[in-house]
From TrEMBL:
The keyword Transmembrane applies. InterPro entries: Globin-like_sf (IPR009050), Globin/Proto (IPR012292), Hemoglobin_trunc (IPR001486). It holds the Pfam family Bac_globin. The keyword Isomerase does not apply. This is Group 1 truncated hemoglobin. The chain crosses the membrane at residues 6-25. It comes from Micromonospora fluostatini. Keywords: Heme, Iron, Membrane, Metal-binding, Transmembrane, Transmembrane helix, Transport.
Amino acid sequence: MEKAILVTMITCIVIGLMLVLWLLLNPVEPPPTHRASTRVEPAMHERLHPAVLTAVAEQFASRIAADPRLAHYFGHFTSADIIRLRDHHRRLLAQLLGGPTTYTMADLAVVHRRLGVTRDAYWQAVGHFGAVIAGLRIPQDIAAQLLRAIYAMEGHVVTGPTPTVPR
């Protein structure tokens, strides 16, 4: 059992490092500030077609529900529950990109507290999320914004026990 925990933790660390490396290798160029412009850039959520956000939400929900390491969180879900989960993910993604505010971090904490999500499970899910946005070729600045926001949610989503690494 201790070996499985260690392997899971190493896997999560490797996935996190891969995502950080991806962000470092694909830097987001800041907008030029040397000249005044009257052009208003659309919010990030407006730059993505709604179908893209839907695809991200659907693929992410499918991947985490199918992962045997995460499946126990979704074992009691009905088909309707999975559809609602995908809709929640889509609205949350739009919000993370500057869209209408629907959720608060307190809302996320309450929902996830009931599930007892562990740190390992969280980072496993983050790895799936990173794979989805990379596979869909989301623009780099939008992908970076999403990953930063997802990383920042850890304290609101991880509510379960954190295993200790044997020494």
